[in-house]
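Subject: complex prediction, re-run

Hi both,

The earlier run crashed halfway through, so I resubmitted it with identical inputs.
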Amino acid sequence: MISFNEVSLIYPQAQKTIFNDLSFSVPEGELLLIMGQTGSGKSSLLKLINGLVPHHTGGILSGEITVAGRSTRMHRPRELADLIGIVGQNPAEGFVTDTVEEEIAFGMESLGIPRDVMRKRVEETLDLLGLAQLRDRSLSTLSGGEAQRVAIAAVLTMHPKVLLLDEPTSALDPIAAEEVLSILARLVHDLGLTIIIAEHRLERVLQFVDRIIHVLGNGEVRIGLPEEIMAQSQSAPPVVLLGKDQDWNPLPLTVRDARRLAEPLREKLANLSPPIRKSPVGKSLPIILEIKKLMVQYEKNLALKGIDIEVSQGEVVAIMGRNGAGKSSLLGSTVGITPIKSGQVLLNGKPAEELKGKSLISLVGFVPQEATDLLYGESVLQECGFADRDSQVAQGTTYKILNQLLPDITESAHPRDLSEGQRLCLVLAIVLAASPKLLILDEPTRGLDYSAKLRLIKILQSMAAEGRSVILATHDVELVAEVATRVIFLAEGEKIADGSTLEILTSSPAFAPQISKILAPGKWLTFSEITSALEQS
Amino acid sequence: MNQRSLHPFAWWSWGIGIAITASQSPGTPALILLCISAAVVVFSKKSDQPWAKAFSIGIRLGLIAFVIRMIIGVSLSVPIPGNTLFTLPTIPLPDWMAGIRIGGPVTSERLSITATEGLTFFTLILAIAAASALANPKQGLRALPGVMHQAGVALIIATTLIPHFVMSIQRVKQARRLRGDQQRIAFRKIAVPIFEDSLQRAINLGAAMESRGYGFNDSATGRRFGSQILLSSVVAITIGISLFLAAINGAAIAFGFGIALLAVGLVVANKSTKRTRYRPQIWKGAEWIVLATSITLISLIIYKNQSTLTTSAIFILAISPIFVAPKEKQMITGVKL
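This time it finished cleanly. Structure:
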């Protein structure tokens, strides 16, 4: 279906070879995963297939790519639209019309498909993706998972043979992600579609894929069966890490495979107890953040319905819940950017909305979902200089912090050219310059690969050890399992659970980390807990 | 959820009908009745979509126009003899401006003539506002003939991008606070992130449209030829309307020529694009009735004299959409209230 023949790609400005002499082919009906670090060229590989690279982005391409016999060299992306559907990283940014039904029909209108055929295909696709209820909805009101499904529907109506998806689940909560992935698996099985996914969250997709392309970042790629690639790869989900550590054969890729093999391990661990999380719940520690009966309202709907939360020094609190459950509103209220309807938010005893400037940032450091909003300098060094001035600290303080987080950064680089993980470190350094007592992160792992995530985990752990508090809103169960000492669950603007990480995560199957699913009923959450417990015994 | 909206062009034909009627001096009672019927139709048929607010904006604009017309009419005009109500102090003007004066006696005749003219302005503005409040602009753009499709899509995208732009300004302002920046005027710090954000969004949208086959099979030459014919037709129709308004002969010829050109242009242009349209706006009975009443309204005011009978006929015709038109579709947001 797709064939690459000695393909090389170079972006002249970046002076970097993205791919060198790449040859492979993908048969019809395969579900393929592209993995690799951020900035390694996963998205470029996807866009090469439908010709957006180089037709839309520039770059020097040699070699030949054909899809169903059509060469991307001779055809522009729009001329391949009847063959290839692509769904971008942020599907909402690609919406052209304003209601679900019109959006789904847009592509067919361009292709000039007769009206009666269009009507039929729209109905079929609405049913296939479970969108019939949403057909008249305005696109701007869709949740993340719904938008993703609409974007998939909008390309499916053109009856493509190939579907390309760039990080389809990274912005979704575990349940919505599961829904999207099972739809994709069904499309492969029922319609024989060829699907290629680029994704970081391996733990979510691994069970569905037939083969993996591992983009190594130095111009080379490795292609093979999931077991082969996972056996060699540094970045792997917890289930694979555990399998490798225990020398399980065959290497398990799913919780089910691992559970079958884990019987001896479960017995061995039964006598051991997981390390107690150093959660300083002692009543003596001072309370940093106090939220009392907080209500937040947007126009007619209540986003938060009377929330009470106290966070003391040294705690790492994870806020979880569906898209639109009120997580961002809650975090925003702690720095006074969410307008409060009633209730109180006290930072160190002072109302958050009254603080500003130095007195605000020395108490709380906030990394918003769109971390780039904070950046306006032209180089990393200049950006650090601005942060020194705003935080009123000695010249070079921010840069020193950045160097600890990220030793190999180029100081003259433009912040927009950094990879997602590097940019997050830069924003963290800026925020940490004022040494705030409380650090707040909104969806920090969106777009982060395993190694960047590992670095973030180390940073957060050391912050907690220094006695700072951390609050993070995230969908990433594995991250929560690694760092959090406490988990708060929000649903429809209400706090529905608040307790220790172990207790909350193991109580619901959808939000349980892989290790705890494998070792249940044992109370284990992460791979590192097991290794350290086994070493000590 | 079997709601249907009236075709936007039908609403426009109704609005234009009222506007033309008002411009042909039908008399004060008829003007007042036209305003009432516009208001009644709008309030019973409008949706909760953003453009429905156009009517209240229209009322305000109309009132401003009315007040300005009254001030000018009372303070500065050619003297009209009659029953003097009160006298304003006169400001002397140089000799070459004879015939115009500022201030002076205000007669009741002058007051009533000015008020009628002001009311005409008010009704004109209200009629246009009523049509824009009822007609769905996005549907209207989509109903445009194939040649104007590109412009239509550009306008639709522009309207959906405005809310995103507002949100990105808000986010960046919040980011200022998060960095502890207290500088009041920080154009660069706000402009740079917003600009980069918008640019990125535009690039992403472009890529999405490209890969979804936008412009899949357009022929450029046919489209250009079609556009030229259409442009000429618009010029001819404009000349026709101007001649008609200025009451000069030849209006009908220019108008007819323009319409003929328009038809040819549309056929040529539509042949050059192979796009199809999903769920085009339907033009059914209700639309025909609204269009017919509008045409009757215009011919009535042109060929009939002022009389009580005409005035009541005008009122009935102007308000008739309330009986035939469906209520405009409401916005569906999925937000629980």
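Residues 2-233 of chain A form a domain with the Rossmann fold fold (CATH 3.40.50.300).

- K.
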